[in-house]
Design goal:
mainly beta; elongated; 7-stranded antiparallel β-sheet; 128 residues
Length: 128
Amino acid sequence: MRSILIEIGLWIAHWWQGDRIRVSSSEGRLLRLRAGQRVLIFGRIWNVEATDVKESDDSAGTNTRTSCLRVRLTNTDSTDDSPKALLEVPLPSDGQPTKNAISGWLITSDGQRTPITDADVVPAESPV
């Protein structure tokens, strides 16, 4: 029985120290976007097409890697001049909770970059 408890303790310690992004459940909407989801951003409804994480080497020569969550969006309004956009959200490099609000950039197909935070993203109701 004691060995089982030790194994469980080791597993929990390993899980707790794992490399992951930790944010409060009331924050992190930008990090939880998934393909197929509809969201309201700055008064416009967008469909989430896909998400991926892009990793790149630090150009400062410090041998660190930076990660960026990229979310591809399609605007549901076909009359819009910018039907596609990309969300880029830099990820904390150490996996520790961030003291600042999660933020990034909304980049439209015409190249316009707009700062965005969790507060700007609202889940949209699915169409009936």
